[in-house]
Structures are given as structure tokens and as C-alpha cells.
Amino acid sequence: MPDDDTSQLPHLGNDERDRSASILRAVVGVVPIGGSALAEIVTSIIPNQRLDRIERYLLLLARQLEERSADLEALKRDPEAIAVIEDGAFQAARAVTDERLRRIVSCVVDGITESDAEALRGRQLLEILSQLNDKELAILVAYDQGSWQAFDHLRPPPNVIGADPKVSEANALWEVSLEKLERFGLIVFMQKTEKVGSFTAYPIFDVFGKRSGHRSISSFGRVFLQVVGLARTKDMSEA
User: Which residue from 4, 40, 205, 238 has the highest number of Cβ atoms inside 10 Å of its Cβ?
Assistant: First the structure.
């Protein structure tokens, strides 16, 4: 999904007093899908200080739907599509960067412009997106880019004997992120094995009991990056 410049888009409200009404007009007018459900979200559930994120979410969503020439009348009658948009609205309320909003909108649009099955898939991908922080997304992109340099600003310093406790903590969090990506099936771990005899192969572990091998992005990981607008063209086999 290309980065959207919303600087020229009209502002929906001038101050906090008219912001809620402006958001509701956006729901009904700019994105006329699931109006009543989204109206309840923005007026009853989402705190006022987060409405600007919903405003930006709706504007980005409207632009993407227009670019896709989406059939809004059909979408309004599709409960799965409405559910995806609602899920995106909740995530948008928690987004702290425009980059995260763009990832959410890309995932929503991908889900609602296809079949009902794709809409259900879109909700599942949105759920995965909600559980990945920006650094974990960056790690997945690095696996897709195809070079060690892609990890230079992400990987913590080696956790050697006598290292600062913060280095140990950073390495532990790094492993947590990798394991999370692996758990979601976005990356896969290729275990090194040692062959004993003609048929038996045993996994290899290092002196600390850590499994030996390498991780690579999975086919699902590449699909996920495409859906959230972060796809790259190069492959990566090891990092």
C-alpha cells in the first residue's frame, strides 16, 4: 500500500466540541458503511482524545476505497465487511503513529474488497497485526529484505559474559519477538540436525542448550506483509 499524504484532506472538525459530530458525518458520508455501529463506537466507547485517530483512519480508508473503485452499496450490506471496518476502528483508536494507521487501513481494505471469506481472513490478519508492535513488523520486513544489513539497527549487541544487564534484557526481548513471529507462522525456524547412522537425524544444540539453526520468512509472512502494505521483492534465507 503506498504511503498516503493526508495533509490536503479536509479536517473534519475545528475543536473538541464539534469533533464527534464531524466524525459521525464522516462515517455516514465519507465511509457510508456500518454507520450506526461505528457511530456508537466513536460516541460511546472511544475516548474523545482518540477521535482524531478515527478521523484520520476514516479519511485514509475513504481514499483507499475510492482508489479501489469499491462498491460501497454492496459493502454496506455485507456484515463481514462492516465487522472488519469496526475492528480497524478499534485498532485505529490505539494507533500512535501514522505508519500504524496506514498498516491498519491496508489490512482493512484488503479484507473488505474481496469475498466474505476474504473479509473473515482480513479480521484474522487484523488480529495478528494488533499483537505485533512496530519493531516486530520491522523485524519481519528485515527477514523479507534479504541482507544482514537490514538487521543492523534492530538486533541488540551480543549478550556476552559481563555484559550490561540492559544488554541481557534487550536480547531476551529480541528472542521474545522472534518467537512471537514464529508462533504466528510469519517466520519459520530451520533446525540443524546431525545424522547418526543411515536414517536417524538428531537436532543440534549449542553449549547453552539453545537450538542451532536459522530463521527465514514464511510464505504466510510474505502474504501478511503484502496485506499490510510492507511487501518487499527480495527473499531472505537466514539471519
Answer: 4
